[in-house]
Amino acid sequence: MTSRGIPRTTLGEGARHEGFLRHKSFRWAKIAFLLCALAIALYALVDVPGRHYGGTAPGYLLGTISLLLILWLTMLGVRKRVMTRGRWSLKGWTSAHVWLGLSLAVLATLHTGFRFGPDVHTLSYALMLLVILSGLYGVAVYAALPSALSDSRAEMTKPQMVDALAKLDAQLEAAAQPLAQRDAALVARAIREDPFRAGLARRLSGASSRSPTLRALASLRGIPETGALVPVLERKAAALAQIRRHLRIRALLEVWLYVHVPLTFALIAALAAHILSVFFYW
User: How would you class 31 by CB atoms within 10 Å of its CB: exposed for 0-12, middle for 13-18, buried for 19 or more?
Assistant: First the structure.
């Protein structure tokens, strides 16, 4: 489940987001529920020597299904690059990705037989749960934030935002010509302020306490010689605040990738070690 794996057609209105979860009247939710029900029935009704664990016949079956599901789910990042309609549309694939991904919490737990310990097998299980949880975060933020992202842009694209800042900076540069050197230096730092160059932490926080524009505005407001400059600084401060809100929401939509994707690769590596240890050392 990657953020880029969420179909762009699902962004925006809440109804469109609900589209991939409700795809084909919850088709994949029903399939996932049926798969979980069959797994629970298998676990409950099939007798095994001693107690259930991954090395029994039901355990091997559930483990194989879980492994194949995990490998298939990782293909969403590849699938999203091929836009098609119909049964295997990106929306349908994403719906399957979410619901079948959730079903793994049941299938893999039954595969373990509720046996856990300080080993690679439990590590694989824990990583899988972390991948699922990070995926749930991705689904949640894409449900809650796209409308806020649209509002924060005020119908402006990024190039339009950049162009608006450039025009304000040009006005600031012209208005700062008669200023004293100290005041002109404050304006010059405000002109150089670029919110799009902020790091991930700054974008997530939306912090503006170190904004050169706000510092210049605080220092120059009330000085008679800067009367024509202050309104321009105020407009730039307002524009920067809007852009920071936009960048913060975008960062919240994307930051889970920095957890979800590495965890997915770690899960695959742990599964490889899990399988090798089962077949070569048990």
Answer: middle
C-alpha 142/C-alpha 14 separation (Å) is 9
Sole residue written with tokens 């730092």: 189
What mean pLDDT is predicted for residues 162-176?
89
Cα 189 to Cα 7, 27, 153, 211: the distances in Å are 40, 56, 25, 9
As a whole number, mean pLDDT of residues 35-44 equals 93
| Total Cβ atoms within 10 A of residue 87 | 9
Given a contact cutoff of 8 angstroms between Cβ atoms, the answer to whether 30 and 95 are in contact is no
Residues 6+ positions from 31 with CB-CB distance below 8 Å: 96, 99, 100
Q: Are 32 and 103 in contact (CB under 8 A)?
A: yes
Mutual orientation of helices 229-254 and 181-192 as an angle, nearest 10°? 30
Question: Which residues have CB under 8 Å from 234's CB, separation 6+?
Answer: 217
Give the span between the Cα atoms of 54 and 42, in whole angstroms. Answer: 13
What's the chain's Rg over C-alpha atoms?
Answer: 27
For residue 148, is pLDDT > 70?
Answer: no
